[in-house]
Amino acid sequence: MAGTFHNVNALLRTVVLLGVVLLGGWWTMLLRGKLLERERELETRTAELSKAQDGLEERDQRIGELGNMLEKRAAEVHQLEVTVAEKERAIQALEVAKRLLRVDRRVARLEVLAQGATADAPDRVRTTVRFTELDADGQALGEPRELTVEGKMVYVEALVIRFEDTYVEQGDPLRGTSLCLFQRLFGEYQTPRDGPALDAAGEQPAVYGGDETPAALHRDLWHRFWDYANDPELARTLGVRALQGEAPFVEARLGKTYRVELRASGGLTIVAE
After folding, report:
1. Among 3, 78, 134, 231, which is most exposed with the fewest C-beta within 10 angstroms?
2. What residues make up the domain containing 161?
3. 250: how many CB neighbours lie within 10 A of its CB?
């Protein structure tokens, strides 16, 4: 009996130990499986992380390239803006220069007061006008003069100084516009020398300050007008393009008023009002 109990007890211990061994083996296999699974998951996560890191590096590189490209484009846009602004300023300057070249200044007014034949010359027309020289503001300069010419074609003779266009375009204070000195009026039935005189030849015109003007350049040009007119090279040293006499004329009609204009870059014109 005692031997049987001993054998059963040994068998139980053997079974228990076998169960413990089997359980330990199963648990070991389970842990190893879990460990392998975690390792594979870790490897997968590591690969994904490495791939993501590579993607981030590539994205950062691309962002850097785009940033450099944007900086380059911004510099190009800025340069274009500067160029456009310079072009606009140049265009505006050209427009101003063109306007200055085309400026017409009213320098005198002609009013036809009387016109008709006379008893001593019934076949010839005689015209009486009121001539008023005007200042830079269009106001009368001195007293108007009533003058009579032989004919209905009224010629306005003047000496004209034209300056180089560059001075006109820049609005130069002394050479920014042509200058004129009225000399006489005359009609088609008389010689110019027989027409009534206006300003005295060689004198500084009153509209430019007369002999009181501080502009030595103007005084010298008027006093030596024909010397400069016959020496173009000398005239050019003073910025003068031309010095010449002009005598535009109009068929005067009774009751009409005409304005005499001087273009900044040109000469005299007569326009009916």
Report:
1. 3
2. 105-272
3. 19
